[in-house]
Design goal:
The chain has 427 residues and is an all-alpha fold. It has 21 helices and no strands. The two termini are 37 Å apart.
């Protein structure tokens, strides 16, 4: 390894240790890591703090403002009341029902929808502590559930990337979208099974003030807004979500639409400037922005590319096809977890996995499918958007987070590779 690789890896490890220690304010370790990148010469100031002008960070920061406005509406009160009814009822059956409902919602927006996971996490975080079903037992499974459609008919993004990397590698055998969707279903089923099993492993602690009653009291602490303001907030929310969902169609404008709608809510006096500032500069946003500079430094040092090439050279010609796919899926998802770059990680490892499969005389469709989908199924470290929000909003300690996320990660990747092998036989 080069000195640049060693330094970048060292700063990453230091950041992780600081997060694990629980002695630093949430969001502070990535900022410290960015400062170290500049001091060590690994990054310029602009590169180290590029996360603060990253389009995805700007989009989520704007959407946090819109969500703050939405939380003031009677509509959210009704939605929250419905969820609270299940929480108050408590028990395992309510947990299962909530899990299924969130996964059904993900079927509409597709996996990896930023707007959807921010919505679900923001909603759950407003529910006060209830001993019958602590919200700390909901934040993690329901947050990750937003990435797993129960009925995966919206797989256009992942399918398009998979076809692209196969065609780039010279594969002309075609790829069935229906079979591709079934692989996603098997992956979602794997997640659901783990979440059902892991319920008792989830911690029990408050993330909001406890109600003085056994059941959660549904109260309206904020004065009722005029009807026109409520309609304006709902319209702003719908415009923000649609804008984010149409990112591939409208381009860069999608990233700033939530910010513009948030500004609209400020103008009509739904939120004051302090509320806007506090939501745009929330600790979760600082965490997300800070880790991007660290991720870029790791990628620019060629560390991830070196790992991929080394594994490809060491596999040899006698490796079991399933193990080949499993290894590359692990590498891709791990790279995406630590760098925050899903697409970049896919384009590093997918060509290597496809080329290795072809050289071994195997059909590369299974490898391509598993590697591409795995790029969005890491998340066992809180160094990306959704996992970082889950850790922060759920007030989890890192060992508590790992107790759920690490087995979940391995279980999902295993289910994904099994599904890919079944639907796209390698021989």
């Amino acid at each position: 390894m080069t000195m640049q690789m060693i330094l970048a890896l060292g700063i990453l490890i230091l950041m992780i240790v600081m997060i694990m220690s629980n002695k630093f304010a949430f969001g502070a370790p990535p900022i410290i890591a960015c400062l170290l990148l500049v001091v060590t010469g690994l990054s310029s100031v602009q590169e180290a703090f590029a996360g603060f002008v990253n389009p995805s960070v700007i989009m989520i920061a704007g959407f946090m403002v819109v969500m703050a406005g939405l939380m003031k509406t009677s509509l959210m009160g009704k939605v929250q009341s419905s969820m609270l009814a299940l929480v108050n009822k408590g028990g395992y059956k309510s947990y299962v029902l909530l899990l299924v409902v969130v996964m059904l919602g993900a079927s509409l927006v597709g996996a990896g929808s930023t707007g959807y996971y921010v919505l679900i996490l923001s909603l759950i975080s407003t529910i006060p502590y209830n001993k019958k079903m602590p919200t700390s037992k909901l934040i993690m499974p329901l947050g990750f559930a937003t990435n797993h459609p129960l009925i995966p008919f919206n797989v256009a993004l992942f399918y398009g990337v998979t076809v692209s990397v196969l065609e780039t590698a010279g594969y002309t055998g075609g790829l069935s979208m229906s079979k591709f969707a079934v692989v996603n279903f098997i992956l979602g089923l794997g997640f659901l099974i783990w979440s059902l099993v892991a319920y008792r492993l989830l911690p029990d602690h408050p993330i909001k003030e406890a109600s003085e009653y056994d059941e959660v009291a549904v109260t309206n602490e904020v004065e009722a807004l005029p009807a026109w303001k409520e309609y304006s907030i709902i319209a702003a929310f719908i415009v923000s979500v649609i804008g984010m969902m149409l990112m591939s169609v409208i381009g860069n404008a999608a990233y700033v639409i939530p910010g513009l709608t948030g500004a609209f809510l400020l103008i009509i006096n739904v939120l004051d400037f302090k509320e806007v500032r506090d939501n745009m500069g929330a600790p979760v946003i600082l965490m997300m922005a800070g880790v991007i500079g660290v991720a870029d430094a790791l990628a620019n040092s060629k560390f991830t590319a070196m790992i991929g090439e080394s594994v490809a050279n060491s596999l040899g010609t006698n490796i079991n096809p399933f193990m080949l796919i499993f290894i590359f899926a692990l590498l891709t998802s791990t790279c995406a977890t630590f760098t925050g770059s899903n697409m970049g990680s896919v384009y590093i490892f997918a060509p290597i996995a496809i080329a290795t499969s072809i050289s071994l005389g195997l059909n590369p469709a299974a490898a391509a499918t598993a590697v591409v989908i795995s790029g969005w199924n890491g998340g066992y470290m809180p160094v990306d958007g959704m996992p970082a929000m889950i850790l922060g909003m759920g007030k989890y300690k890192l060992p508590e987070f790992w107790l759920f996320s690490v087995p979940m990660y391995l279980f999902r990747i295993l289910a994904l590779c099994v599904g890919a092998i079944i639907m796209f036989p390698v021989n």
